[in-house]
Amino acid sequence: MQTAHTKAHLALREMLRQICDKADIHPHLMDRRLYLGKDTPTGGTAHQAGTLRFGEDPKTAVLDLDCRTHEVDNLYVTDASFFPSVGAVNPTLTIIANSLRVADAIIACLR
Question: Where does the Glucose-methanol-choline oxidoreductase C-terminal domain lie (predicted)?
Fold first, then answer.
């Protein structure tokens, strides 16, 4: 037996599915069973990351360990692109923490 709450929930999910279809949003984003380890397509996560990986070697990383580009002086990147890959949860707090760390490194360079 469906409760009013269950019916409303199902109706909202259907409405969201229709909106996503019109906006050409991947329907698998609504699947709560989407976990790491499965073959997740590029658009299969709402937290894309890893486009400008960081590391010590300019041959394998775009950014140094302070998220400064190896090839362009004084260009720092502090969004999720420095991650090697996306984690299992929202990365906002980690991005903020890294941004504060990078800001401290920039301030130290200016002194």
Answer: 43-97
Q: Which residue has the tokens 């109706």?
A: 11
- Pair 82, 91: CB distance under 8 Å: no
Q: CA 76 to CA 98: how far, in whole Å? A: 11
Q: Is the pTM of this model over 0.90?
A: no
Split at pLDDT 50, 70, 90, the class of 84 is confident
Phi–psi pair at 33, nearest 5 degrees: -90, 10
Q: What are phi and psi of 105, to 5 degrees?
A: -65, -40
CA distance 99 to 97: 5
d(CA 53, CA 74): 17
- For 14-63, write each residue's pLDDT tens digit: 887 888 788 777 666 655 554 555 565 555 566 778 789 888 999 999 99
Mean pLDDT over 64-78 rounds to 94
Residue 88: DSSP 8-state:
S
